[in-house]
Design goal:
There is one protein chain. Helix content is 62%, strand content 0%. It is mostly helical. It has a domain of 47 residues. The chain is rod-shaped and about 110 Å long.
């Protein structure tokens, strides 16, 4: 009788665990807009990828890529091109 009750308890726990809602994944857009949260999640993915999950770590990687590759004006765009100074003729 105890074995049956134990088996049913284990089955119920496993069933409830399997039906639990998966952890929500923060979107790439929200991570791009919040660099502090992105930094925190990058550290978590580096420390324990399996715990954080593939979906979240993939979103973190994409947000990092987008922040790095985003279109920004070049700080050198308005710098005038300077011509080299003429060198003095040597005899």
């Amino acid at each position: 009788m105890n074995r049956v009750l134990f088996s049913m308890s284990v089955a119920a726990v496993l069933l409830l665990t399997g039906c639990s809602k998966p952890a929500s994944v923060e979107s790439v857009e929200s991570l791009v807009a919040n660099p502090e949260r992105l930094k925190e999640l990058r550290a978590q993915c580096k420390a324990d990828h399996a715990k954080v999950g593939d979906a979240q770590c993939n979103a973190v990687a994409e947000a990092t890529r987008q922040r790095f590759m985003r279109a920004m004006p070049s700080p050198y765009a308005n710098d005038p091109v300077r011509t080299p100074a003429p060198q003095a003729a040597k005899d």
